[in-house]
Amino acid sequence: xxxxxxxxxxxxxxxxxxxxxxxxxxxxxxxxxxxxxxxxxxxxxxxxxxxxxxxxxxxxxxxxxxxxxxxxxxxxxxxxxxxxxxxxxxxxxxxxxxxxxxxxxxxxxxxxxxxxxxxxxxxxxxxxxxxxxxxxxxxxxxxxxxxxxxxxxxxxxxxxxxxxxxxxxxxxxxxxxxxxxxxxxxxxxxxxxxxxxxxxxxxxxxxxxxxxxxxxxxxxxxxxxxxxxxxxxxxxxxxxxxxxxxxxxxxxxxxxxxxxxxxxxxxxxxxxxxxxxxxxxxxxxxxxxxxx
Length: 292
Description:
5-stranded antiparallel beta sheet, alpha+beta, 53% helix, disordered N terminus, 3-stranded antiparallel beta sheet, single chain, Alpha-Beta Plaits
């Protein structure tokens, strides 16, 4: 009996160990512990949402910038088209004026021919008509002094010291091309007579560089260059001073261009020699043969 009682009596701590193991494995105990523990909320990350908003903002900004750019390009294209249309209209008007002048010259030629015929029928004297024709030819050729309203353009080298800049010093002095640009603008604006430092410009006149000076009609001149032009003063002045024109281009290198309008500009006649060694008058023999 004593041995059996001894065998059934648990050792110190044995009962607690066994009891703890049973309680921990019991479903009821586990359920109670789960009920006592507060429920854990699922963790939701905010990164996908923030990334989507960021990407949408970038896309919206890109589309907005493209819209502004397209509007800017459209407005620039429209402005360019308007300027082009105005330029074409101006060229058209100029061509119409040239056609009208040619038509008037043709009418004057017909009038001269009629006068020739009339003089021939009446007295056979062509002296008066031929004298008028000769005077007109000399005027167009540049062999007579002419006077009329026009411009006096004075071109001077730059006053800037070339040592103060890193650019080529030759940029700050006047070259033949600079004078040619001014002369071409004046002719395009309707100049009827031109001279450079007293040299009358003809169809055979040259404007070329000769070292640091410029040659005109085989005569050399240094700056300043005085260009006289007879024609419409307002039209010629506008042609020279237009935005982006020859004066603006020369002002980049501090080339001085002074333009003065005058109601009376005197241009002397050409006094040099005019010889034609190779050019000869062309005679159409076929028309004569047909007339015979």
